[in-house]
Amino acid sequence: MKYKKLWLGFIAVMVGSFAVLGYYGTEIYRQAPPIPDKVITASGEVLFTAHDIKDGQNVWQSVGGQELGSIWGHGAYVAPDWSAEWLHKEAMFFLDTWAQQEKGVTHDELDEEIQAMLQARLQKQIRANTYDAETGVLTVSDLRAAAIADVSSHYTGLFMNDPALAVYRDAYAMKDNTVSDPERMRKMNAFFFWTSWACVTERPGKNITYTNNWPAEKLVANEPSSDLIIWTGFSVIILIAGVGLLAYYYASNREEEIDTSKLPKQDPLLGLKATPSMKATLKYFWIVTALILVQVTLGVVTAHYGVEGQALYGFPLADYLPYSITRTWHVQLAIFWIATSWLATGLYIAPAVSGHEPKFQKLGVNFLFTCLLIIVAGSLAGQWYGVMQKLGYGENFWFGHQGYEYVDLGRFWQIFLLVGLFLWLALMVRAIMPAFRNDVEGRHLLGMFLISSAAIAIFYASGLMWGQHTNLAIAEYWRWWVVHLWVEGFFEVFATVVIAFLFVRMGLLDTKMATTTVLFSTIIFLFGGIIGTFHHLYFSGTPTAVMALGATFSALEVVPLVLIGFEAYHNLELSRATQWIKAYKWPIYSFVAVAFWNLVGAGVFGFVINPPIALYYMQGLNTTPVHAHTALFGVYGMLGIGLMLFVLKGLSARRRWKDGVISFAFWSINIGLMLMVLISVLPIGLLQTWASVEYGLWYARSMEFMQTDTMELLRWLRVVGDTIFAGGVVALAWFVIGLKTGWSLEADEDVSAADYPSARKTKALK
């Protein structure tokens, strides 16, 4: 394939995809659910103002936001989805009030015909859009005002300290006095009402709600729309067609088997002399190892909160580290350690590729390391202060907890991190530029390396595009730019380029093959991945066109993952090709694991929830963490571990590793992850899906369903996978420490010759 055609294809995909993403982003701005200036009753009483709703959103963010329950299906899974539950409680208040007035009984005690009549009356009233765009006033009936007051009273008791609701707080892993100020609670209720109002109110001139009839709620006629069903079918057709085309491409461009006679007879990296800045990256991997241990420990605690809501084996841990904090830190540290591993690998590779150590490069690497430590410690501390309600609205936004999953850190820490990423980019560019100027053959691959590095710095800036009072639908649009485009998109491209560089440097791939493969893979991945961002936004107050585009292009995201087995097989064959390559067995095995989890976690488990009709019932259920764990840790985490091991091997290339501990670590991590999902999280998610289809999301997330004996048993079964997984992580840390102390290394073994036995024999003769 010609470089020119590949570059033109890459440019076309980038320009075309971002044009679509940007255009429909403006539509999201234009058609987002409006925040009324006032919410008043038919009799003229003011219930809420826009200021109340916006402040209430800030209160919700400060208590953990999406780390404590969810809104519009996005967030944590132990507590309810507040928008769905509010809607159900409000609907039942209407129905029970009418049933008492007309028959003197509750709605559930009525016969089916009268129930149907009352539900039809409810649907006519509650789905009607009574918002006046000209005056900015939303008018509700006096009965609905009574329903709002009733649900608000329940949530006030739940989030504060009503003893009668203690059993609910325990089931939802909420500490007492999650919100301690009645005024803050009043405002958060205003925000909850608005999110629920968007779920049930029809768009002007449409017969679907602002959230495309999500959540499923038969009482108010929230059912899958015809568009949702049609685009689900179209996404499946696109998937099949895409797989067929890519299979044809692979068949017609099948690679020859590895010719071992053409591979280097000795390890090319043995001649590589680590520069001072390359050696300085070692401390990054020590921090990566420490963060993995802390992150997994917090994951264990967070999972345990699901079975013992406010305590850890009797100890009242929620008083000091509530669920919303342990989950925040668990998610945030995953991003931190994975990103740190990848960034440190880039800092190691750049001088290695160019053979040039810029002046003060080591100082820059050490300064960036200090900045990262401050960002990690400062942001985690700020989140704790926010959740413990020790910060005001503005202070929490800047230094505390923003409440948005994966981008929870305060705005100050976001800006600090962005500056750090641009510092990293500068260090990368100044180290790689000599090679870019001198290496004509490798210039195209180096170009992709620089572009992917720049994208990592630039696209994190999308996390600054929302403000303290931004409409939630708009904030979600930009949040997924960070989570999907930054984490899942351009980090993936960067990783592809880095692995190609490693294999080229080791003589396992020629530069031309590596370059064409990287460019083609990037085009295929981004063609579906950029616009595929919309599959996260089906039900977040977005127009129907977003659903159509998200369904189509998210199916295309899966296409390259279906044939990822070729990559896994190729990497496995490489690990066995010559004797010296076996020294890199565990980094390469990690890359094989990445390919496996790409297929299973990102591909299979991702597509299970991506089609609109599936996500309509599954959004906000435990089917999502099945995908999240197997994709985030399985793909990005294992890649971070593989890159770390590769660099650590490069820093001690003449020493052979002992296989015992690292073998146990590798297999325990992967087997534990699989068991965690298959015997606990996935069964819980599938049972919740049945409950969501049969009764609605509110029930699938309710205490009455989640606290049954069956669900309790399934949650406890997670201990099996978690224990094996945690054992593997501890073993990995032990092995990494052993590389420094010596217990992970064989006794002074020279591996510079073509194979170990001859090296030992030569040494013995001497």
TrEMBL record:
Keyword Transmembrane helix recorded: yes
Cleavable signal peptide: none
Ranges where the Nitric oxide reductase subunit B cytochrome c-like domain occurs: 36-216
Pfam family, one: NorB_cytochrome_c-like
Transmembrane segments: 7-25, 228-251, 284-307, 329-351, 363-385, 412-433, 445-466, 478-504, 516-539, 545-566, 586-609, 629-648, 660-693, 713-737
Molecular function terms from GO: cytochrome-c oxidase activity; heme binding
Phosphoprotein among keywords: no
Keywords associated with the record: Membrane, Transmembrane, Transmembrane helix
Protein name, per record: Nitric oxide reductase large subunit
Organism: Pontibacter flavimaris
Lineage: Bacteria, Pseudomonadati, Bacteroidota, Cytophagia, Cytophagales
